[in-house]
Amino acid sequence: MRHGKKVAHLGRTNTHRKAMLANMASSLIEHKRINTTVARAKALKNFIEPLITRAKEDSTHNRRIAFRALRNKYAVAELFREISEKVANRPGGYTRIVKLGNRLGDNADMALIELVDFNEVYETAKPKKKSRRRAGKKETAVAEEVVEAKEEAAPEASNEAEEVSVETPSEEVDTASAETTENDIQEDEENKAE
């Protein structure tokens, strides 16, 4: 019985499987996404995610462990330079497997495996939720109009301040009181007519 044996053999010997996963991981690091079968993609995910976690801390020991697994110094250099910077704040889950359907020749399940932080197809940022409260929209619109009115009034106020300094304040008060009394008289006459 094969209890507790979780390694996906992929129909290959141990050395062949390690070499294949090293090559696939190097290709994934170089191209940021590759097409393969679903079984290989899942095996590759288990192979490369611990290496990316190691790459977050750049030390000689971690580089040697990554080189032992990848067997490609260019892939190790890119892993520790570019990829480690992009995934620095991500606590795991560095790869995404997207199923693509079946291959024409042998009907094998195909998948695309990609590094999550290097995608151009999927949008990682969630769209803003629209507010369902109407009052909030009106208040913000009114607030914006008030700010715009104040900005427009500020230059006009400076011009008026210059004109006011020329006129005497007593004349302004007299004209304002005269206008209010005329308005009151007109309203009284309209009320009497009704």
Q: What's the CATH C level of the largest domain?
A: Alpha Beta
Low-confidence runs: none
Strand order of the largest sheet: 1-3-2
**What is the CATH homologous superfamily assignment of the largest domain?**
Ribosomal protein L17
End-to-end gap: 105 Å
> What is the name of the CATH topology of the largest domain?
50s Ribosomal Protein L17, Chain: A
Q: How many H/I helices?
A: 6
Count of individual domains: 2
The SSE order reads: HEHHHEEHH
Proportion of strand residues: 5-15%
Quick one: biggest sheet? 3 strands, antiparallel
CATH architecture of the largest domain: Alpha-Beta Complex
Counting copies of identical and different chains, the oligomeric state is single chain
Provide the gyration radius in Å. 36 Å
Helix content: 55-70%
List the SSEs and their pairings.
Layout: H1 14-31, E1 33-37, H2 38-55, H3 60-70, H4 73-86, E2 95-102, E3 109-115, H5 134-166, H6 169-193
Antiparallel strand pairs: 1-3, 2-3
Key structural traits:
single chain; 194 residues; mainly alpha; 50s Ribosomal Protein L17, Chain: A; 2 domains; 3-stranded antiparallel β-sheet; 6 helices; 3 strands; 10% strand
